[in-house]
Amino acid sequence: MSAHDDQHPGPDGGWHQPLRHVRAADLSADTGQTPGMNRTEAVSSRTVGSERVWMGQTAVGPRTASGNHHHGDSETAIYVVSGHPVFVFAEDDREVRLTPEPGDYLFVRRSCRTARRTRPTRRPWWSSRAAARRRSSSTCPAH
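Above: the chain's sequence. Below: its structure in token form.
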């Protein structure tokens, strides 16, 4: 028993829980897709056995609009890697547009319906997403 074992939960101090490494080259497009977007997943129940977290990347081409979609029973964090996306959603019967820049983050509440657009530019945009699911029997996709 080491001096650090008492700082970690579980009978073995948590040291025997394997980490999972997903290489960038191993991202999978075998995940839920929305027209106008290209999603690749890194961390999911299918790729690493995660129970409540999905993480991956989304790409939208220049001058493109994604289909409307919802985030199911997940809270989603989005980091804008590059490009100039426009996030569209409804709030109090009005359309709201958010225009984050590379390096910005967005938080999407669960069950929120959104669409993504690109500003009139020739550059596509990329984002990295993480979604945390609540424990439930919902069949809504996390993305």
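The first strand starts at residue 38 and ends at 43.
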